[in-house]
Every structure is written in C-alpha cells, then in structure tokens.
Amino acid sequence: GGELPRWKPGAHIDLHLEGEMVRQYSLSGDHEDPTCYRVGILREPAGRGGSAAVHDTLISATPITVSWPRNNFRFAEAEQYLFIAGGIGITPILAMIREAERQGKDWKLLYGGRSRKSMAFLAELEPHGDRVQLVPQDELGHLDLDSVLGTSVDNTLIYCCGPEGLLQAVEEKSAHWPKGSLRLERFAPKVVVRDHEDEPFEVEFTQSQKAVTVSADESILDAAKREGISVISSCENGTCGTCETLVVSGDVDHRDSILTADEQEANKTMMICVSRAQGKCPKLVLSR
After folding, report:
1. In a 3-state reduction of DSSP, which class is residue 171?
2. Cβ(185)–Cβ(73) under 8 Å?
3. Distance in angstroms (rounded) separating the CA atoms of residues 225 and 116
C-alpha cells in the first residue's frame, strides 16, 4: 500500500518461502520505481527447492515476506562498463544496464546461455542492438572471453554474474586488467583451498560485551548463537552478506564469496558464517 524501500542496481532481496525456506534473488527491475520489486527465477528441478516453491506456490496476489534490499554487487562509477552474464545471471545486470543508459555511459553486454529459448529477457535487451552480444551455446558454443578480455581497457569496470565456471574463467582471463576492474556475484560459494587445519580462537563482541571460544569445527556465527548473542543470517555459506560484521581488531582469514580482494585486504568487515581468525591471530574483536 505504500512505497517500497529504495535500492540500487546490484541489490537482492530474500524471499521467505514455504516452511523455513529463505532464498536470495537479484532485483532486475527499475530501481527508480518504488512500487515494484521484480526478480527473475529460473525453475531448477534439481535445485534446493526454492525455485520450485516459487513456480508452484506463488500466484497472483499471494502474500509473501521479503527482506529489505541488500547490495553486495554495487554498481560503481566508471567511464565505461563490460557486462558478462551467464544464464539467469542476467538478472542483476539488467538494472545496471538501465542505470548505465540513464547516465549516458558506454557499455556492452556479453550474454551466454544454453539456448535462445532458455535465455531470459531477450525482448527487453533487443532495443540495445549491437551493444548486446548473445551467445546461445547450442548455436555458437561458449563465450569467447579471450576476444573481450584479452586486451585490458583503462577506466572500465567488468561486472560478471553466472555459474561458477564462468566466474572462474572471467577471473583468469581478466587477471592482467588494472586492479579492481572485476566485480563478481556468485550464486554458490567459491572453493576455498586451505593447507592447514582450522584451530580454535577467541572472539570478543564489543556490543554484547561477551567473549567466546570458537572451536575448530564451528563458525563464529554458530559460537555466537550458542552464547545467546543476537545475530542474523541467511545463506550461512558466505554468499548473501546477511551476517556481515565490523572488525574492530585482529587478522581475518576471509573465506566469503562477496568481498573484493581490496575489501578483504582492508579487513574492515567479515562474514562470520564462514570467515575465521588467521592462523597466527589468537583473537578477533568484532562489533556486534
């Protein structure tokens, strides 16, 4: 009945589905329209049940609880943009394209999918003409990342969303670009390889005025809940950003799939569902 909370391109919301199921979906509409949140959800029969619940139970006028918008994939200022989308990863890119157009910025989109039939929002992208390069795999094979990323371009930001294989390939192919050029959004947590076993460490929560010991086989989030400290979480695998917490002191072993390399190096926040203290850091002090 009123205006929805405002959001910026790259934001997502939680949908509270049947039972205790909570799933995150990118907002793909116009962020200047306060009357509507639009998401695009591909039905995945072999998924975890979220998309099936949406397709099977949400019909017109079905009430649903959603979260406030959160943004871990922020649309930053640049002279020009290269957007790369795989499959339903097109959803957050749509809002970015709309904003780039609004600002009169130069941009192009490389968009791949299994087939034209499976690629969403093609009619919406059609008016952009040759700024959009469609690559249906059954017609043209895989995205030609070498051609678009082979030569680095100054003052250009790369935004990529899609399956993990695409994200890893884009990371590899753009490694020679200027630092900070690449921004990614992952649907699933990235693989974190460790050459040592996790060890216990101490965490002090300044707001709660409590100190806890985090054992080798639990997360900071679990330890906080065990001690009755008020925390909120959703994915619990480092991809949604719900549990992001300010770091007061201590060295963090960042294991999330959200923060950029620069943000992790700055060590100002951490995702307490997956990240831990560095091996040689016996204690973290967090603002919670």
Report:
1. helix
2. yes
3. 46
Kindly report the three-state secondary structure assignment for every residue of 20-47. CCEEEEEECCCCCCCCCCCECCCCCCCC
- Say how far apart CA 237 and CA 111 lie, in whole Å: 27
Tokens of 162: 């899609």
Q: Which residue has the tokens 């086989």?
A: 217
Model pTM score: 0.82
Structural tokens at position 10: 């790259």
283 by DSSP, 3-state: which?
strand
Amino acid letter at 268?
K
pLDDT in tens, 46-103: 878 888 999 998 888 889 999 999 998 999 999 999 999 999 999 999 999 999 999 9
Which of 264, 258, 276, 270 has the alpha carbon at shortest distance from 217?
A: 276
Judge residue 183's burial from the number of C-beta atoms within 10 Å of its C-beta, 0-12 exposed, 13-18 middle, 19 or more buried: buried
Q: Which residues of the chain have pLDDT under 70?
A: none
Are 148 and 181 in contact by the 8 Å Cβ rule? The answer is no
